[in-house]
Write a structure and sequence with these properties.
The protein is built from ten helices and two strands, in the order H-H-H-H-H-H-H-H-E-E-H-H. It has about 270 residues and is mostly helical. It has one domain. Strand 1 and strand 2 form a beta hairpin. The longest helix is centred in the N-terminal third of the chain and has 29 residues. Belongs to the 4-toluene sulfonate uptake permease (TSUP) (TC 2.A.102) family.
Length: about 270
Amino acid sequence: MDPLLILALLAMGAFGGFAAGLLGIGGGMVLVPFITMIFTARGVPDELVVHMAIATSLGTIMFTSLSSMRAHHKHGAILWHVVKMLAPGIVVGSMIGPWIGKQMNSSALAFFFGIFVAFSATQMLINKKPAAARELPAAPGMFATGGLIGILSGLVGAGGGFISVPFMTWCNVRIHNAVATSAALGFPIALAGTLANIFYGWDEPGLPEYSLGFIYVPALLIIVAASVTLAPLGARTAHRMPVRRLQQVFAVILYALAAYMFWKSAQ
């Protein structure tokens, strides 16, 4: 593999891992556009490039989430009873999301991803917290919420933090607990979504060598090597300093990445 490509993937992994630990976003919103750029440059067919970028990004979250989850757990910030209530719906939804994505062509999927990232950037930039108006719902409501988080996360290759964190905050969960719990939820999202992407892409024609379904294994391994190193640093930073200024910087970056995905969808 080209040394410059390895360095680019390592840099992406480091940035995505730090973002995952700091903001509980799973890193997917940052990784998918960059992976799309690299896969396009490497000659991956246009009809597969976005699907593979999303699947590969989701695969990295399996490892990133474990690393950031461990760091948050050391601070006692993860609400494990919330994880247990949301996880069943998340697993179901995370297997449905990639199936929906497979039915979409690359342009439509890129456009949908761009909308999701632009919305998430706006949410991060204005930092409008939902009013803490109620308690967490009972088991059926938590299953339905988990299903929605899983579907959207599996569809766009993200960790679900931009749904789960506002939802938990709205339900009177402290923001640091919400971010930590969201990091823990990234693992069932990524595990179920990764297995689904392997299954749905197994017999897809035109996949590059060393692909496992829609997942490009060499890129996955390189990104993971960097992301698992930086995710704990992001998690520690989240507990040591206000992250408002960093949120604003990330929002600007996300707008630029959303613009790229809109451009990609128009090709």
